[in-house]
Amino acid sequence: MLLLLCGAMNMSAQTMRQVWMDMPDEMVVYLNRSNRTELADYVEMKVDAAIGNKLGDTTRVERLTPDYIRVKLNDAHRLEMKLVSRDDGSKMVCVVNTFFGPAADSQIAFYDTEWHLLSDIQVAKPTSEQLCARPEGMTQERFDELKAMLDPELTEIILSETDDSITFRRSIPAVSSDDMTELKSILTPFFSNFVVISKKSNNFAI
């Protein structure tokens, strides 16, 4: 009974700092536990939380709170993680990797706090129509031309550091400055929250 109680207390007290340090090395092969601990320590010391990594680049923790972290792993890769409550009171880790090439493209996955992949948990992404809207005064023909410029469809996912919300927004490829201005005018970010829809399967939807 005592062991179970201690385990429950440890689970409830787990913070993003600990999750970050315990993250398997294979998640980011050029950062080991010592590197991750050093970065977390720099945050607590309130100094620039940056180190040189094994790629010859710089990794910087941009934000670390008890349940959220945002890390610029290198110039082309951003990592965000968020501790999210499950319906049984336990926590899981939402992980978003965003790659810039140069347009942003994100991948989202969920893990338990022991870093086992929760493959049955999915997030329903917004439709193309929810991320694009024709502004007043724009012809349908021009709107269709602009939407065609967004092929292939790349979506950036951003986690909130203050609540359990997610922002989806369509990424813009390399285009002329005139087209860029018009493309920005048709894009509409989509905001939503995590919602438990099945206690048995622990599936999540938006």
Describe the structure in your own words.
The chain has six helices and eleven strands. The chain has helices at 2-13, 16-22, 33-44, 128-131, 140-148, 177-186, and strands spanning 50-52, 58-65, 68-74, 77-85, 91-100, 104-112, 155-159, 165-170, 190-193, 195-198, 203-205. The longest helix is centred in the N-terminal third of the chain and has 12 residues, at 2-13. The protein starts with a helix and ends with a strand. The model is unreliable at 1-12 and 195-206 (pLDDT under 50).
Keywords:
3-stranded antiparallel sheet, disordered C terminus, 6-stranded antiparallel sheet, disordered N terminus, 6 helices, alpha+beta, 26% helix, 206 residues
A few lines on this structure:
The chain has 206 residues and is of the alpha+beta class.
